[in-house]
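Bit of a strange request maybe. I'm writing a small parser for structure token strings and I need a real example to test against, not something I typed by hand. Could someone generate the tokens for this chain?
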Amino acid sequence: MKNYTITVNGNVYDVTVEEKGAGAAPAAAAAPVAAPKAAPAPAAAPKAAAGGIEVKAGAAGKVFKIEANVGQSVQAGDTVVIIEAMKMEIPVVAPEAGTVASIDVAVGDAIESGAVLATLN
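Reply from user aminoacidic:
Good idea to test on real output. This should exercise your parser:
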């Protein structure tokens, strides 16, 4: 058996998976093992080299468009970058007001969930 922790839409699940190999006896049907547990509290944004506030990707995908420029003032909720994931355009917004200190990606870059896309001062 292997244990995994999976996060789906911000909900964290502990999942146990039974491996079946050649010669293993089939397991009896069981109820789902996934049990939700409380999502961890968001940590304070760590200080980045170019700016103190990190703008991170919420999903893996490809950078579709960059909406903000270095030096531009943004408000909390303003779109900084747009990611294309699963044929959808997903805006990545500024977590708080500030000035764009750096844009750390380019259009077409493949990015992972949680990647730092930009920083703000």
